[in-house]
């Protein structure tokens, strides 16, 4: 892969930023960064008293030529933000300054260090993960390589290996077994005891690692006789489609198009529901072929489905658990109609910056925090105290009753939802269980509320760092002239709303627009993109 190791200029490593989700760029630029991340992970482990630190080699939904790396803290959470700048210093310093840079970062005294490494299916991921291993071992860390895994699986392994979640027996620290156990527990609370007429879900695996996870789930569902409730059909598995190319969650949600190989004609059967995961399976969006259109059921609607279900169960469980707080956290990309729908049902809605580390943090403010980005990345967080109370009540011999049933449901949700990070496989089971309990079709779910039409575009500029967004990324603090122009453009369309923000994963500025009609949303997006080109140093042809 990339340049031979001997040809790499170690005095001038590529200058990378630890962005929304770690280091990410063309794979050929990453050899040194991978070694240094291995070293940093070893130091972080010492800093955390020798607990295991995770390193995931993936560039998620990016094109195959890119790769990347994310660091996972001992609880399974993303790397503490205070360490991101340390990661940058270590990854980018000249080799002649490496020792002193490492010394400036090293705070921990622990005698041992331990690193868990996972990777996605990219052709260069194996070689890059070996560089991570070399770096970690160079600083004396013990390395466990869990091979090809989804990003949420790696988070789970780290969390479970450090004892922060109960370990279930089975491969990958019982990941698939724990999920299917919780799924079964949730289904057991259903008054409908037979299978479903629409039990089949086609899963577009984006040509990536999701296919392995789906295979693990399918086998367990079959073994437990649950296939009549949920039968998973994996499509676009590793050799059927090039990674993320015209398939996967990013393609479906951004382009608003069916994934490759799964048009209405390819599916062969009407009324099938489908979903798409991304290249490292931490995102999930649903879709179906409606009467005339291809319909997407995105992260906003996943959050709405789950939040309304949870709100009802919390109300029913009130005699036993009191009134824990529930909130939904969204980003600027959430459709305006989603927040209105939730507020009408008295569910609190909060906003955070794009990127899981921000929304996750904001969701921790609630006893039950549901967060989803419109792009399908999200989960349901349940505070430890509430989780323990639910577990205790659920284990007591039951007298039945609605409150007790609600406790069992909430406890199963807490076990099923990934507590570290958005997880396409866990979310898939959660959504399917709720649809099954509510006997809801995907069409009825999709019709929960009417979205305002929206459009997303991107524009390359000379320096995206010149764009400075506010805390929720809904407006620009600078350049002021560009924000003023965006305001004027949005005001010229009915229900117009638009914003731009520098991408944290690609060298582009992202443009989002929504308006009352499809025509207006498309026009507004294009006008804003032109404004970015004119007022923020656009590159290439004027749009
Ligand atoms: C990363 C983020 C995702 C965010 C996206 C935005 C994680 C694990 N993933 O994929 O949450 O929506 O970046 O990308 O944090 P952008 O900054 O390029 O728009
Ligand atoms: Mg991803």
Provide structural commentary:
The protein is globular and about 70 Å long. The protein folds into four domains: 5-148, Alpha-D-Glucose-1,6-Bisphosphate, subunit A, domain 3 (Alpha-D-Glucose-1,6-Bisphosphate, Chain A, domain 3); 171-290, Alpha-D-Glucose-1,6-Bisphosphate, Chain A, domain 3, CATH 3.40.120; 300-431, Alpha-D-Glucose-1,6-Bisphosphate, Chain A, domain 3; 454-535, TATA-Binding Protein (2-Layer Sandwich), CATH 3.30.310.50. The strands form five sheets. It has a five-stranded mixed beta sheet with strand order 1-3-2-4-5, sandwiched between helices. A five-stranded mixed beta sheet has the order 7-6-8-9-10. With 543 residues, the chain is α/β, with parallel strands linked by helices. Helix 1 packs across helix 4, helix 6 (171-187) crosses helix 7 and helix 6 (171-187) runs parallel beside helix 15 (424-437). It has helices at 31-47, 84-92, 98-105, 125-138, 151-161, 171-187, 210-223, 248-255, 264-267, 299-321, 336-344, 356-363, 384-395, 402-416, 424-437, 442-446, 480-491, 518-535, and strands at 23-26, 52-57, 66-72, 114-119, 142-148, 200-204, 231-235, 273-277, 284-289, 294-297, 326-330, 348-351, 368-372, 378-382, 454-459, 468-469, 476-478, 497-502, 509-514. The structure holds 2-acetamido-2-deoxy-6-O-phosphono-alpha-D-glucopyranose (16G) and magnesium ion. Magnesium ion (MG) binds next to loops. Residues 298-438 form the Phosphoacetylglucosamine mutase AMG1 domain.
């Amino acid at each position: 892969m990339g340049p031979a190791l001997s040809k790499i200029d170690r005095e001038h490593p590529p200058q990378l930023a630890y962005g929304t989700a770690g280091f990410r760029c063309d794979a050929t630029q990453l050899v040194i960064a991978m070694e240094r991340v291995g070293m940093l992970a070893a130091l972080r482990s010492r800093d955390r008293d020798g607990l295991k630190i995770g390193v995931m080699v993936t560039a998620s939904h990016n094109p195959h030529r890119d790769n990347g790396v994310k660091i996972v803290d001992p609880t399974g959470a993303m790397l503490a933000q205070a360490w991101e700048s340390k990661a940058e210093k270590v990854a980018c310093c000249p080799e002649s300054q490496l020792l002193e840079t490492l010394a400036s970062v090293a705070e921990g005294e622990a005698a041992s260090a331990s690193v868990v490494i996972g990777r996605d299916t990219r052709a260069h991921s194996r070689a890059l993960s070996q560089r991570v291993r070399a770096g970690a071992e160079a600083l004396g860390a013990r390395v466990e390589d869990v091979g090809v895994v989804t990003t949420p699986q790696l988070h789970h392994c780290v969390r479970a290996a450090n004892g922060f979640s109960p370990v279930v027996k089975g491969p990958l620290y019982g990941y698939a077994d724990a999920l299917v156990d919780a799924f079964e527990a949730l289904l057991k609370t259903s008054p409908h005891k037979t299978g479903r007429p629409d039990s089949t879900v086609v899963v577009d695996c984006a040509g990536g690692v999701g296919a392995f996870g789906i295979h693990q789930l399918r086998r367990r569902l079959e073994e437990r006789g649950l296939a009549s409730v949920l039968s998973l059909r994996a499509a676009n598995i590793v050799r059927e489609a090039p990674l993320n190319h015209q398939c996967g969650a990013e393609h479906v949600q951004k382009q608003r198009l069916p994934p490759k190989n799964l048009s209405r004609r390819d599916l062969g059967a009407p009324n099938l529901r489908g979903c798409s995961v991304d290249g490292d399976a931490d995102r999930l969006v649903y879709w179906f072929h409606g009467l005339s259109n291809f319909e997407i059921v995105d992260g906003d609607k996943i959050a709405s489905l789950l939040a309304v279900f949870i709100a009802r169960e919390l109300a029913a469980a009130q005699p036993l658990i009191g009134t824990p707080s529930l909130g939904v956290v969204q980003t600027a990309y959430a459709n305006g109609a989603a927040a209105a729908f939730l507020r009408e049902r008295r569910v609190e809605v909060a906003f955070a910056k794009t990127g899981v580390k921000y929304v996750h943090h904001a969701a921790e403010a609630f006893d039950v925090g549901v967060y989803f980005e419109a792009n399908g990345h999200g989960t349901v967080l349940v505070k430890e105290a509430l989780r323990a109370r639910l577990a205790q009540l659920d284990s007591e011999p039951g007298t039945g009753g609605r409150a007790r049933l609600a406790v069992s449901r909430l406890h199963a949700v807490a076990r099923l939802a990934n507590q570290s990070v958005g997880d396409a496989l866990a979310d898939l089971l959660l959504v399917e269980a709720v649809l099954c309990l509510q006997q809801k079709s995907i069409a009825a779910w999709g019709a929960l509320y009417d979205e305002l039409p929206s459009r997303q575009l991107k524009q390359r500029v000379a320096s995206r760092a010149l764009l400075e967004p506010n805390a929720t990324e809904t407006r620009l603090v600078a350049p002021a002239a560009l924000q003023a122009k965006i305001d004027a453009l949005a005001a010229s369309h009915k229900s117009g709303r638009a914003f731009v923000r520098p991408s944290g994963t690609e060298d582009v500025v992202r443009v989002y627009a929504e308006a009352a009609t499809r025509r207006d949303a498309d026009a507004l997006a294009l006008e804003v993109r032109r404004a970015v080109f004119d007022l923020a140093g656009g590159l290439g042809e004027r749009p």
